Amino acid sequence: MRVIDLNKTFGSVMAVKSASFDVPGAQMIGVIGRSGAGKSTLLRMINHLTPATSGSILIDGRDILALRGAARHAWQRDCAMIFQQFNLVPRLDVLTNVMLGRLNRHGTLRSLLKVFGREDIARGLHALERLGIADQALKRAEDLSGGQQQRVAIARALTQDPRMILADEPIASLDPMSAQVVMDSLRQIHERDGLTVICNLHTLDTARTYCDRVIGMRDGAIVYDGPAHAVTTDVARDIYGADDSFNEGVTSTVLEPDDRRAAEVAYLRAAEAGA
Ligand SMILES: Nc1ncnc2c1ncn2[C@@H]1O[C@H](COP(=O)(O)OP(=O)(O)OP(=O)(O)O)[C@@H](O)[C@H]1O
Fold this sequence. Notes:
By secondary structure, the chain is α/β, with parallel strands linked by helices. The chain is 40% helix and 21% strand. It has a single domain, classed as P-loop containing nucleotide triphosphate hydrolases (Rossmann fold), CATH 3.40.50.300. A 6-stranded mixed beta sheet has the order 6-7-8-3-9-10, sandwiched between helices. A 4-stranded antiparallel beta sheet has the order 2-1-4-5, covered by helices on one side. β7, α7 and β8 (196-200) form a beta-alpha-beta unit. The relative contact order is 0.19. Mean pLDDT is 88; it is low at 252-257. Adenosine-5'-triphosphate binds next to β2, α1 and α10.
């Protein structure tokens, strides 16, 4: 993937400014930066959840920002999104939630009727097994812990057969142990399946532990792009724009404007409808 001079403005706010980077092969990338730095907007533009103002994103030489209609939905299927708030259907059982990831692989009629075949069930169960929660398959999603729900969301993403996983602060709502399990799962998917995982993270130590590469954003611009191990305290201070009193433990945020939630819900509905 090549991201070239990507920009996003919201009114007078330049959320992402001239972002450019290449992902030459499967990588696990952590995007860090303080609240409002533009991390979510960057991920959302890659997935088409937020339209870019200008720039291009080339995959196999094709600008995915120019895609419309079915081609655009096919791309959204190829880059599965994982959200901080899991975005499961709370009253549906876990297995059905996971199989929803298969819907936009099928034709419209099958998708509308939510008809799952044997292969869908097998794939759903296999994904749950990989995430270590197959025993929860028949429970309602809302009855699971936050960490388990995020693993269900990852299993759903896997059943989409994605080329890439984009995770927007996947552990921000989780306790430390659940966060570790979720990050271990994403790392394992990256290594075993050879998928690129781009993950917005709000703690530096998580990025250092799990990612090979870190992209640091400040005020919409990429101010660091390099190996995770090279993110020293000085580099971090530059990314977070903090003074000498900078404390690594204090980084991003969990605030999420309502309009973004609405966009996520619309995205998932479209996926469910097999649009
Ligand atoms: N839908 C929107 N409408 C208007 N402004 C927005 C919208 N989404 C993001 N912004 C603004 O764009 C800038 C970048 O926001 P973004 O959410 O991408 O940052 P972030 O680094 O992900 O922050 P956080 O860690 O708080 O989620 C901020 O100034 C934010 O207020």
